[in-house]
């Protein structure tokens, strides 16, 4: 993990936000029966996961001391993340489930049509993956086969729809 000075961080922040980047704070929590592993789990989340995600420029945070409640230990972290655009933050939120998110800069942001489509497609992809996981665990083989036929049919209809739409232009 490369450390940068506060001056370098400020310069990176300004440049990145001017190019469409977003600065945010994510709030995470972890829980365990073992108090001693909590800080390392949180450090691993930040250093080995968040910092390595595509589109993350930098991330740093503070980790609270673990507290005990009914035999379970918990800690929280406040992680400041600078991303090249909104989509990496969306991916982080979906992948790591923070309990809170705060956009710091820019205060207002507009999206072009391509960015909005990318956001919606990413949400659709995650939804589809989750639905597939649930269906694999619930459906019988016969029900899966029937559903796959419907999905293939839907896919073919979607292709035809967009082909027709493109031909009309």
How would you describe this structure to a colleague?
- The chain has 169 residues and is of the alpha+beta class.
- It has two domains: 102 residues, Alpha-Beta Plaits (2-Layer Sandwich), CATH 3.30.70; 55 residues.
- It is 53% helix and 24% strand.
- Strands 1, 2, 3, 4 and 5 form a five-stranded antiparallel sheet that branches.
- A hairpin with a 2-residue loop joins strand 3 and strand 4.
- Helix 3 packs parallel to helix 4.
- 15% of the residues are buried.
- The model has no long low-confidence stretch (mean pLDDT 85).
Short description:
By secondary structure, the protein is α+β, with helices and mostly antiparallel strands.
Summary tags:
24% strand; 53% helix; five-stranded antiparallel sheet; 169 residues
CATH class value of the largest domain: Alpha Beta
Q: What would you report as the Rg, rounded to the nearest angstrom?
A: 21 Å
What are the segments in which pLDDT stays under 50 over at least 5 consecutive residues? none
Biggest β-sheet strands, sense, barrel: 5 strands, antiparallel
Mean residue pLDDT: 85
- Helix fraction? 40-55%
CATH topology value of the largest domain: Alpha-Beta Plaits
Total strands: 5
- What order do the helices and strands follow? HEHEEEHEHH
Treating each run of at least 4 consecutive H or I residues as one helix, how many helices?
A: 5
Tally of distinct domains: 2
- The fraction of residues in strands falls at 15-25%
How does the overall form come out from the CA principal axes?
flat
Which quaternary structure do these chains form?
single chain
Termini distance? Answer: 50 Å
Level-2 CATH architecture of the largest domain:
2-Layer Sandwich
Main structural class: alpha+beta
